[in-house]
Automatic annotation (TrEMBL):
SUPFAM superfamilies: UDP-Glycosyltransferase/glycogen phosphorylase (SSF53756). This is Lipid-A-disaccharide synthase. Condensation of UDP-2,3-diacylglucosamine and 2,3-diacylglucosamine-1-phosphate to form lipid A disaccharide, a precursor of lipid A, a phosphorylated glycolipid that anchors the lipopolysaccharide to the outer membrane of the cell. One of its GO terms (molecular function) is lipid-A-disaccharide synthase activity. Coiled coil: none annotated. Keywords: Glycosyltransferase, Lipid A biosynthesis, Lipid biosynthesis, Lipid metabolism, Transferase. It holds the Pfam family LpxB. Pathway: Bacterial outer membrane biogenesis; LPS lipid A biosynthesis. Its EC number is 2.4.1.182. It catalyses: a lipid X + a UDP-2-N,3-O-bis[(3R)-3-hydroxyacyl]-alpha-D-glucosamine = a lipid A disaccharide + UDP + H(+). GO terms for biological process: lipid A biosynthetic process. One of its GO terms (cellular component) is membrane. InterPro entries: Glyco_trans_19.
């Protein structure tokens, strides 16, 4: 029998990690109800009893240039996390995604003797592959979301274990489009367009002004167009402030079930790159992907990125299933043209939807749900004697 009250210290650094962390906590508790959780997380993890060491939003920043003004705060938060782990002496540490912060944390506690799991393999297969040399010793187990990742890491001397993608548990397919229209008083004929500018503070301010001008163009052809912005509650005030003067006021959606209803009601979506593309694919929502970062960040990234696509849907399909409008192509005119085509071209929509089904089939774990598979790996490591804990 496991001893009572074993402690798992868990870190999530952004909204998607909070969702993954909450599901993981539930799956772990199902396997061992005596587990105690500490660490850093957002509203979903806190709702399950986690008292976050500091606000998760302090870690949600992206971009090589964008992170510079936050370095001092991030360093302070890293110190706080390390000290908390040293004081609590948990039985195991789980870091979820957020490699910029999480991998530094794992490095700081490398000599602690505490078992460590990193959940969501760093996407070094996409860019900065040389970072792989820094990984040996950082974790005892690496949990991969994408089916090709274990082989990729194995070829470089590191073990990774595929546990399936959490998007499969998102519940997107339970959405009700008619319910969304009734709740928000949207006419049946009005085209609903999902806008996803990102959950980080550094993302939305760059994309939303472009989205506003795009809507100005689109409403000439679609006067009843209805934009919807699903966001995590923590960033909703920032989004509301940024859109307060828009001629067309988007519906801001923070509730997860309302978000799924919005997906069911939508004719198409415009989203940043990332997991949101898989979430929209689960909802069968035709989409285009767009992104804009600091020009210096973009220049550096282009030299480092080694993959032909940035959208996860396209990467898994091995071809451009959804249009990618990045950086200089992220303009109001080009976005409006693409969204207009998604709203008016049934053949384009059908091609996307057929590809979505093939992509999503690749993401299932061998058994159970992704959270169950991840929890099983963590419990397996937790129950190993410390002397057998691998330091690969």
């Amino acid at each position: 029998m496991p001893r009572y009250g074993r402690v798992i210290w868990i870190l999530a650094g952004e909204a998607s990690g909070d969702v993954i962390g909450a599901r993981l906590m539930q799956a772990l508790h199902a396997q061992d109800p005596s587990l105690v959780f500490a660490g850093v997380g957002g509203g979903r993890m806190e709702a399950l009893g986690l008292h976050s060491l500091f606000p998760m939003s302090d870690l949600a920043v992206m971009g090589l240039v964008e992170v510079v003004p936050r370095l001092r705060q991030l360093s302070q938060r890293l110190l706080e996390a390390v000290q908390d782990i040293e004081l609590r002496k948990p039985d195991l540490v789980v870091t979820i995604d957020s490699p910029g912060f999480a991998l530094r944390l794992l490095q700081k506690i490398e000599r602690s003797g505490i078992k460590r799991v990193h959940y969501v393999a760093p996407q070094v297969w996409a860019w900065r592959e040389k970072r792989v040399k820094e990984f040996p010793g950082l974790w005892d187990r690496l949990l991969c979301l994408l089916p090709f990742e274990p082989e990729w890491f194995a070829q470089r001397g590191l073990e990774g274990r595929f546990v399936g993608h959490p998007v499969l548990q998102s519940g997107v397919r339970n959405g009700d489009g008619q319910r969304f229209r009734l709740r928000h008083n949207i006419p049946a004929h009005a085209p609903v367009v999902i806008l996803m500018p990102g959950s980080r503070r550094s993302e939305a301010p760059r994309l939303l002004p472009v989205f506003r001008k795009m809507l100005d163009i689109l409403r000439v052809q679609y006067p009843d167009i209805c934009p919807v912005i699903p966001v995590a509650p923590v960033i909703a005030p920032t989004i509301r402030q940024l859109i307060r003067k828009w001629p067309i006021q988007p519906h801001i959606v923070t509730d997860i079930h309302d978000k799924h209803d919005a997906f069911a009601a939508a004719q198409c979506a415009l989203t940043k790159s990332g997991t949101s593309t898989l979430e929209l694919a689960m909802g069968n929502v035709p989409m285009a992907v767009t992104y804009r970062v600091n020009p210096v960040t973009a220049t550096i990234a282009r030299r480092l990125i080694k993959v032909p696509h940035v959208a996860m849907v396209n990467l898994l399909a091995g071809r451009e299933v959804v249009p990618e409008l990045l950086q200089e192509n992220c303009t109001p005119k080009k976005l409006a043209e693409t969204v207009s085509k998604l709203l008016s071209d049934p053949q384009m929509v059908e091609k996307q939807r057929m590809a979505f089904a093939d992509v999503l089939d690749m993401l299932s774990p061998p058994v159970g749900t992704p959270a169950d598979a991840a929890a099983a790996e963590i419990m397996d490591l937790l129950n190993e004697p410390v002397s057998r804990s691998s330091r690969s």
